[in-house]
Design a protein that fits this description.
Shape: elongated
Structural class: alpha+beta
Radius of gyration: 27 Å
Strand content: 15-25%
Distance between the termini: 40 Å
CATH architecture of the largest domain: 3-Layer(aba) Sandwich
Number of strands: 26
Largest sheet: 8 strands, mixed
CATH class of the largest domain: Alpha Beta
Number of domains: 3
């Protein structure tokens, strides 16, 4: 055991013949995971403080101890020798799973958890393909446990993860285990309703298909969906998420673990608003206004050439952006504006009520309902309450990567005095009626890029959907326009190249690289306060 001053104490034990060294206080189950040894479990969850050891499937054999031990609550110790695959441990595990299956319905073909169900996996692993019980199964039915969450009592294995999440992480005693034994089920506390801004996490922690989001019910199976690592655009916290898509439609968001941002959780606002963003009309091809005042489709080559010619002739201008745009796009627009001699630029932020997860106070649904407020300010764009309309003779450049309709964009009359209006948008938006050119760009879900959250953490997101029509990322379009105008840098074709170009000239990103960001992100190097809320 290491006991050097300033160094955490460690213990060394042997698990299935493999020696592993872990910090003192680590449970045997966690140590086994570090060693790459699979020990099944149900009631344990790394984000929930208590470990009741009630599911009894993580039992292991420890030399020198007379009976099997639950590994989720057993402290690892020096010279401990653990066997996870003895005949005794396998038999105990198999018996527990057989008991869980006594009244469990054969719902696998229709269950939304099929393909990612821990009971299904372990039943197959232990060979539970037939039941020895001849009596009819107990039927308990389903219930609406919250406005958007259904509870299938037949499928529930009473692991109590949902109850403990609400009690210990959300600090809301809304859920309880009613009855006991084979009659037990999850219910709301008498006189209470489940109404919490983070309640959707109980579906995520459920190891089987007992808790299901109603808007996901029967929509897709695990093997039908493509998943991408992403960042939630719902507020400036920047929760790490996995975006699941089927047939190029977002069908589900689930939190992705990042101890420095959101742990294992996310709010319900982030889940719902992005799924709803599938709806509506998208900008799919470049549109240019002709001599008759009508917007006509054009190919990219002709559209970029004519837009570049128009921009070359402007003498003054303004820029209006959205904090839903990624860092690379904002940087690309800043370079273009600098080349054109246009200073500043403005953005508006939609705001809303806040909500904090009591058990992980750093996680909060923040007032700013945009993912990249810090990034917008970093690249010289100014937050305003009301955008400044262009004066007579000024050009207006608009950038909006938002997947859903953008309520922060002004009405068409805003641009009445503008000499030229260029809109780079994922949706037509209100200013499209006044635009001289509309260039279709992808939303964050259709490309790779980065956001900078309220703390100044730069985080990558990957492409989850195919682009709409022939839309292209804004950073690619802007780099091409800059190249046509004689600017430096050339056309950027990859998100990694766009990030490297940005990081190389941005002091706050000194030393950052696309690969170095990984799945967890890196903090900006800055001596001044980052933008956004710190509460």
């Amino acid at each position: 055991m290491s006991e050097q001053k300033g160094v955490a104490e460690t213990v060394t034990l042997t698990i299935d013949g493999a020696e592993v060294t872990v910090p003192k206080g680590t449970k045997v189950l966690d140590a086994a995971q570090r060693a790459g040894v699979v020990v099944p479990f149900y009631c344990y969850h790394p984000g929930i403080p208590t470990r009741p050891a009630q599911c009894r499937v993580c039992l292991v054999s420890v030399e020198g101890q007379g009976k099997l031990q639950p590994s989720c609550v057993l402290d690892a110790a020096d010279d401990m020798v653990v066997h996870t695959d003895t005949g005794e441990a396998r038999l105990a595990r198999k018996s527990v799973i057989e008991l869980l299956l006594v009244n469990h319905p054969l719902d696998c073909p229709i269950c939304d958890a099929a393909g990612q169900c821990m009971l299904q996996d372990y039943a197959f692993e232990t060979g539970q393909l037939e039941s020895r019980v001849d009596e009819p199964k107990q039927v308990m039915g389903r219930d609406r446990i919250a406005d958007d969450i259904l509870y299938f009592a037949d499928r529930c294995i009473i692991c109590t993860r949902c109850v403990r999440f609400m009690r210990e992480v959300a600090e809301d005693d809304a859920l309880v285990v009613a009855q006991r034994g084979h009659r037990a089920y999850i219910d709301t506390f008498p006189g209470r309703e489940l109404d919490h801004p983070f309640q959707g996490n109980i579906v995520d922690v459920c190891p089987v298909g007992a808790l299901v989001h109603e808007d996901f019910l029967f929509k897709a199976r695990f093997w039908d969906m493509d998943s991408a690592s992403s960042v939630c655009p719902g507020c400036s916290t920047g929760c790490n998420v996995s975006v699941a898509a089927k047939e190029n439609q977002i069908v589900r968001l689930k939190p992705r673990h990042n101890a420095d941002v959101n742990s294992y959780w996310m709010c319900d606002h982030g889940r719902k608003h992005l799924v709803m963003a599938n709806r509506g009309i998208r900008t799919e091809v470049p549109l240019l206004r002709d001599e008759d005042g009508e917007l006509r489709p054009a190919d990219w080559k002709d559209a970029l050439r004519r837009v570049a010619e128009s921009l070359a002739g402007i003498e003054a201008g303004r820029a209006l952006v959205t904090p839903h745009a990624c860092n690379e796009s904002l940087f690309g627009l800043r370079r273009l504006l600098d080349h054109l001699g246009i200073e500043g630029g403005e953005f508006r932020v939609e705001r809303g009520d806040t909500a904090r997860l009591a058990g992980f106070p750093k996680l909060e649904l923040r007032e700013d309902r945009a993912p990249n407020v810090t990034g917008a300010e970093l690249f010289g764009f100014r937050r305003v309450g009301e955008a400044t309309a262009p004066s007579t003779g000024e050009a207006l450049l608009v950038l909006s990567e938002r997947l859903e309709e953008d309520p922060t964009l002004p009405a068409p009359s805003f641009a009445d005095d503008a000499s030229y209006v260029l809109v780079l948008g994922a949706r037509p938006g209100p200013l499209a009626r006044r635009a001289d050119a509309i260039l279709p760009i992808t939303s964050f879900a259709e490309m790779q890029g980065t956001f900078t959250n309220f703390e100044g953490r730069v985080q990558r997101f990957d492409q989850a959907l195919r682009e709409a029509g022939i839309a292209r990322p804004a950073w690619m379009v802007l780099s091409r326009l800059l190249a046509l105008l004689g600017g430096e840098g050339g056309t950027l074709l990859e998100a990694s190249a766009a990030f490297e170009a940005m990081a190389s000239v941005t002091p706050e990103m000194e030393g950052m690289s696309w690969s170095g960001l990984g799945l967890k992100g890196l903090d900006l190097r800055r001596s001044v306060d980052v933008a956004g809320e710190r509460s």
